[in-house]
Write a structure and sequence with these properties.
Elements: E1 3-8, H1 16-30, E2 34-39, H2 53-57, H3 66-75, E3 78-86, E4 89-90, H4 92-106, E5 116-123, H5 128-141, E6 154-156, H6 167-190
Parallel strand pairs: 1-2, 1-3, 3-5, 5-6
Antiparallel strand pairs: 3-4
Helix pairs in contact: 1-6, 3-4
Amino acid sequence: MEKVILVSGSPRAEGNTMQILSRCAERIRALGLEAEIISLAGKNIAACTACRKCAELKKCVLPDSLNEIAEKVRAAKGFIIGSPVYYGTARGDLMNLLQRLGLVAAANGRFLSWKVGGPIAINRRGGSTATIQEMLMFYFINEMIVPGSTYWNIVFGREPGEALEDAEGVRTVERFAENVAKLILKLSAKE
């Protein structure tokens, strides 16, 4: 069965980002795919040190969860990320993960190429479009496929649970998750 990995970049294990990704996972499962959510809460994903060891070892040498997450993403057909917006940008841990994942993938036959997915930003007020654009750069440079939705993948909410009250935002990201799943199914049928 085809699988989508969703990564919550929030330090809150049960916060808005996880709640929104859970709704996305439900939509993906409803279309017959597997969905696994990985939370970065409690993990410390370090920044790349530019040691270039991944090019020769085919994995990252930093001792954190990156390699485990990379293997799950490698085996999946889809990859969705969600980040709270902090000071107008994506959370640092998530960007560290994306930058290092991109390097590990490049050293391993560009395994991110043709995976389907995209970013979701969850925020109280401002900075969401800049955050989406920041995260989209990872998808585009890795030859990934990003389907659209009925609006930008932005959900508003500050306190845990408030994001689920943003009806338009929830509808938008649920539709995005469905589009990810449908595209994976179409591509898989062609293989």
